[in-house]
Amino acid sequence: MTHWTILPIVVPALTAALIVLLARQDLVLQRFLSVLSALAVFVISVGLVVHATGNPPYSYELGNWPAPFGIVLVLDRLSAAMVLVTMLLVLAVLIYSFAGWDKRGRHFHALFQFQIMGINGAFLTGDLFNLFVFFEVLLIASYGLMLHGSGATRLKSGMQYVVVNLMGSSLFLVAMALLYGVTGTLNMADLALRVGQVESGNLALVQVGALLLLTVFAIKAALVPLHFWLPATYAAAAAPVAALFAIMTKVGGYSILRVYTLIFGEHAGDIAWIAQDWIMPAALVTLVVGMFGVMAGRSLRDLICFSVIGSMGTLMVAFALFNEAAVSAGLYYMVHSTFIAGALFLIAEMVINGRSDGQDTLAFGLPLHREALLSGLFFLAAIGMVGMPPLSGFVGKLLILDGATGTPYVAWIWVVILSTSLFNIIGFSRAGSILFWKSQAEAASQSGPSVPMESVSRKDNGHGPESGLGISSAAFLLGLIGLLTAFSGPVSQYFDTTAAQLLDGRPYIEAVLGSDALVESGFGSSPEADGMEDGLGEEGDMQ
Amino acid sequence: MNLALIVLLPFIGALFPAFLIRSGRNACAYGTGVFTLVAFILLLVQAPAVFSGQVIQARFEWLPQLGLNVNFFLDGLGFLFALLILGIGLLIILYARFYLSHNDPMGRFYVYLMLFQGAMVGIVLSDNILLLLIFWELTSLSSFLLIGYWRHLPEARQGARMALAVTGGGGLALIGGMILLGQIAGSYDLSEILQAGDQIRSSSLYIPALLLILTGAFAKSAQFPLHFWLPHAMAAPTPVSAYLHSATMVKAGVFLLARVWPALSGTPEWFYIVTSFGLVTMIISAWIAIFKDDLKGLLAFSTVSHLGLITMLFGFGTPLAAMAGVFHILNHATFKAALFMSAGIVDHEAHTRDIRRLGGLLFLMPITATLALVAAASMAGIPLLNGFISKEMMLEEAVHTTYLGQDWILPVFATLGALFSVAYAARFAFHTFLGPVRDDYPHKPHDPPFGMWLPVFILVSLVVLIGLLPGLIAEPLVKITTDAVTGGNTPDYHLSIWHGFTPALFMSMIALAGGLTLMALYLPAKSFRERFPRPEAKVIFEAIIEAIAKVSGQITALAHNGSLQRYLAVMVSAIIAVGFAGYLGSTPLGAGERAMVPVNWPGLVAWVLLVAALGATLMYHHHRLFSLILIGVVGMVVSLTFFYFSAPDLALTQISVEVVTVVLMLLALNFLPKETPRESSSLRKLRDLVLSGLAGLGVAGLVYAVTTRGFESISDYHLAESKPGGGGTNVVNVILVDFRGFDTFGEIIVLGIAALAIYALLDSALHGAAQRRLSKWVPEGVRAMDPHPFILVIATRVLLPLALMVGVYIFLRGHNQPGGGFIAGLVVSIALLMQYMASGFSWAQHRLKLDYHGLIGAGVLAAGLTGVGAWFAGRPFLTSDYTYVHLPVIGEFELATALGFDVGVFLTVVGAVMVALANLSRVGRRADAAYEAQEQATDGKEA
Question: Cβ–Cβ of A215/B711 closer than 8 Å?
């Protein structure tokens, strides 16, 4: 297991470098290297999950420097699962891009591999500053990808994307400087030990630092009112890029979950669970804003973008509860929402390319090439996105609703989640019936059933995304949704233990700093520790 | 196991029709029917067990943590419903074979139908209420597809969407109700919930659970005021209507009432809510049904009315009423399916369903007419038919039930409902089949093929048989069902035609006479009705949805207007609010223990310079070049500050970064207008001033607070370990390439990516629309007469070897003295940059044939492979090692693996800077070439 932990970062980084060095003129070689790397990291990530399932967290000390003085990567259930989810999405998106997108600009595959490196790094790192570095890698690679294929709209929304994220990065530095200024450390496990011991005179600084850091992650997670960058960016990006970005908001969600359970969790003294009171209302409002956007959507991609915002709201509602059931539910929903958003963006583009006008406005219909197949895929993906049975979106929502019971927020959460679901159903059924039904009707009324296929398949020259490659990547993602639904039992069992591990925090700290540090600092021996013991007990029962 | 198979078979069957249709319509229909038939037979196999009072179960784990498991059970209630769903389902499949025209995609129809059938069977056999929910919403989804089957009809699309919104929305309420119910009972398994009735009814969550569950059930069963979707669902093909509105979809709601009856009924809340909604629905929709001209519309409202009747019966809460409800479910399913199919036959043959255009069909299509007349008579409650018996039971129960302390309310209104139903049944029968034969039918009707009227015949036979021999045929089934509904409290009551001269009999007679009278007075009644406003529910619903969509659109457009300034203002405000709230909401900040350093002259000058430069940038930001220079000043002061605080590495880095960025930005600015337009209003400036002022003050305050207190940090360790552990005395460099080499690895990649992105972006600027714009570009201002000043050319060429040497020197000494790969890379880049600037890009490019992309790749690869090298020593990534080497002449020097890493850093930096430069100047040369061509063209013209 020794070096496996770092492979999800190093393999794509070196692959990208190799592509730039040797393969920048040869698309076939680029594709080969790119897919080879993605497959390799996928296999590795499966290994990581297997390892994390049976073992306590594992700390990989870069440069062989002991924590907290060097940088560590930490492999635990959460980070392993996140990497696996990323790689599954990556495989689908990569295959989709082979249908033509990777030809439309320079350096697609290099940027793509760097993007993977950044995402995996953000999930695996156990160091706050290193997290910042990976955020930068993410941002700059995503900026390159976002502009891929060029065009004025893309440039304009790309500009907004980069400005907003630069602001986020600066804020990240401010927040980190505050935390470092008071605690003198950047290692997350070490921070967790020290934050609880901050003297009361410095508490205000730590609290401000914690909250500013929260806003940084909230920007990434597209929580209202920090979500403005998302709709235009995702709608303007090329389909494979938008689909890949489905995991990017999750990086924000992941960071919130990681930092605000480990560092500002139960043992943070006066600022324990500081994120909750801020995230919860923001997440609920995010859901509502997402719903408004879905109801208002004038184009298919608008609709999808806002439903992504709504699903981030759902996800963050679950995380903000910070109890084992809800966090586990949120993690399950996160996997679901990643795949479903990815699938929807791919399908949306195939619909656009299949339409004879190449548009996705929901105002009037035009005949659609491959209508039966695409409408079937869209129907399934829409069911998943709005959270109707029987797909994992429904299971995830049930888990979240269940996890909310017994908390003071239960009424709010239920009312908001259920009512926004209704409007999502209305919005998506409207879009689907206009796109797939009305278009057929108008085609029939205009020129009879035999619309000349030449006009319909203007863009379909056998290489467009709606060719076999495109359909199969979308189908692959929906297949993953199917598996996630069928195996919701084992999957949520995995996440139950993950959530327990997160909320406890001690296994993580022990892995990074050793059990002595844990004992010395008195971490976990506070009176609140009782609840935690219970948590452990449950974990034991489950296994 | 068999139970699961019964549920699964229709779903499996849904996989085939789309392919079977390739073998023809018969293969498709009968192939599909086989699955339903097998499921039906499997169900019948269970009959003996069910009739002997057993409850058959099948259990599989799915998501046990949540309590969501695939648990099925079969009791009387499930048996009755499954029998109806599969039995009538078979008839529908047969009927649809003949009903669908050659233009209708039959494969798709059967796929949807089977999905729906499976979902319905799933509902009635679920033991787990969460599983039930899943099937429940699946019926909403599959009925959406069925109703929208004729997608070319706008009313089909609207009807489908409305049905989905209402029933799916009801399903969402049901989700809430079911979870509450499960939590009260401590289990999501029905078999346990039904045992916990007392506990549920006494719970404080009873009322919310009840309301949510009833909302779900009422939406599905089309109870007023959620009834409006049902008539519009009639846009579906008639087999769908016959199926959905007789035995299945809408019955799911009453099924649910029956299912939870033992757990939820018996309270005043249950009684008043359920009874009232049922009663109101029954009367209102029966009244509307009378005046519907569309055959299916009339039947649709009559369905709503009958559902109201059944709902009301379950609301009474007495076992006998429940028994009547169960019996009426059975009866209604038979006669209503027959009626829908008859209406479909009329439509199919006469090409119209408009009652006003029909009449006299008895003589043209005698078989259909006879069957329809019998079924209609049953609907009206004429004796000797099954509808009569259950309606009698209903009236009887109404007589014995007190409502709001009054005995008369329910009997009177129940009779009124019955009266209306006689009227609409009469209208359906008389105006369609009786009367003179007309000669203006859109199509001359005649009886359909055998296969099409056979299902109707089977159903009507049941209507008659149950009507004649209720005790023999229906009673056992009704009794075991009632057993299941009431939890074993089945009353000792026998179904029979004659119960003596009961009040119900008189009420029946009144209803019959009154209904026929009303029919005779049809036209006056119609004009009476038309005098009152009749709110059209569909219009209201669509107006509400439209309004919500409109408001959503306005809110969304207002919030997301595309203005970056607006977005940033909102975001910064939020961040400021969060930051200040965090500060004010915490324990007061203690005073810092560190004394302030006294102000000295250099510091003061630098500070004044900084503030002045920033202020000037603010003032003159419209002049792009000038503000760039001002920003350079800011950078300089920052470098000086680093220097002042004894950080020469940082100072060096900062200075070289400043130089490179300013040069590159100058190149980029070349293509932009020299001034930015003035767009901000003064109000907006004020807003921005306040926001940035608050943000700046906030950060300044934080900096002050942090710097006034002492702290211990991990950097002590870095200082101590730099030489022994990292092999270098320059701690900053050891941190960069060793302690935190991984960060540096990431950051050089950021730099590399940035260069690649610049390349990709500018490359696209050389094609398409951007290229056309570029070719028309006219530089602003005066152009220099001498693009390559001689002195500059000479100076830079002389300086080049020197600068390169400096670069190498800085690189090599980096580990111990200020320097390192990053700074060296920048220095070398600057040296190269100067060549390009002074002598022109093509001159330089000609002499240094290097693809700088490769440098980036090589750099990242070098750094990465240095890190990987540690693996072979069994150490983690980037673990460094160093040794001392003695070479003649040079002497002893240190060789560290960190050097390899630093080479990577160096290469990446040079590569990134040069790629950026190369591409900016590529655009420039392209533009220049175009411009000069233009000039020459104009010159030529002038000449």
Answer: no
